[in-house]
Amino acid sequence: MEDRFQIHLITDRRRARIGLEPAVFAALRGGVDWVQLREKGGPAAGLYETALRVIPEARRSGVGVLINDRVDVALAAGADGVHLAARSLPPAVARSLIAEGMLLGVSVHGLEEARRAVETGADYVTFGHVYPTASKPGLPPRGVRELAEIVESVEAPVLAVGGIDASNAAEVLSTGASGIAVISAILAAGDPEEAARRLRRAVDSLPHRPRHPMPDPKRGGRDAHKAQPRERGARRRQTHRAAAAGGEEAPG
Questions:
Q1: CB-based contacts of 63: which residues, under 8 Å, 6+ apart?
Q2: Integer Cα distance of 123 and 125 in angstroms
């Protein structure tokens, strides 16, 4: 279903109660739409090996795989896209490096960041943290109101992240966000497959629909997002590449 809310699993080896790869494979069975492989501070070789094991299983389930931060690993492993963190390469530079058809996402923490990310090449943004989360100890959550403002102001899919689970997904997605990104809600569960199924049931039962649907990986793997026309078409990608080559910020 093209306009359904999506579930992204972000990996964190420290949170995986039954081990990272078993938990990821369980989440695939449970109904997630995308897996974002993230190894903060880990070696590229380890992330690459993990990607080589996860990608074939994900493809069999119709699930897309994104690599956090490491453009080189995403290209080497044949991933479906790259997700940039705050200290990653600028979106315009990453766009100039990745293969045609690969998805590009960017983590943002406010409206201006979100606008800038989309203007310089992001296909979607992830905003957070919405609720208190162990991933950001001591930092106040940004809340649903700010999420709603970004959803209404940015002409691209917006995912929500941070402290989200089946109990609060309805409040988050009532903003028109495109979906949720979770870590502990699945990885920290004793039964990650059932945790993913519980999230799937929660988001699929909602009467709302996303303002901008996320690309559906089940519609053709790494080229899935090309099936949905957007303002950020071929001419815009060429502009980003030219801006990156010249050391300038691409115009919006």
A1: 28, 32, 33, 34, 35, 217
A2: 7
pLDDT digits (tens, 9 = 90+) for 29-68: 999 999 999 998 889 999 999 999 999 999 999 999 999 9
Q: Which residues are catalytic?
A: 38, 107, 136
Pairwise CA distance, residues 202 & 187, whole Å: 17
Q: How far apart are CA 184 and CA 205, in angstroms?
A: 22
Give the DSSP H/E element, type plus range, for residue 79: none
pLDDT digits (tens, 9 = 90+) for 80-114: 999 999 889 999 999 999 999 999 999 999 999 99
Q: Characterise 217 by phi-psi region: left (phi > 0), alpha (psi -120 to 50), beta (else).
A: alpha
Rounded to an integer, what distance in angstroms lies between the CA atom of residue 181 and that of residue 135? Answer: 13
Closest alpha carbon to 216 in 4, 48, 40: 4
d(C-alpha 46, C-alpha 225), whole Å: 28
Would you give the DSSP letter of residue 188? T
Residue 19: enclosing H or E segment and its boundaries?
none
Rounded to the nearest 10°, the torsion over CA 123, 8, 80, 151 is -10
Cα 232 from Cα 252, distance rounded (Å): 10
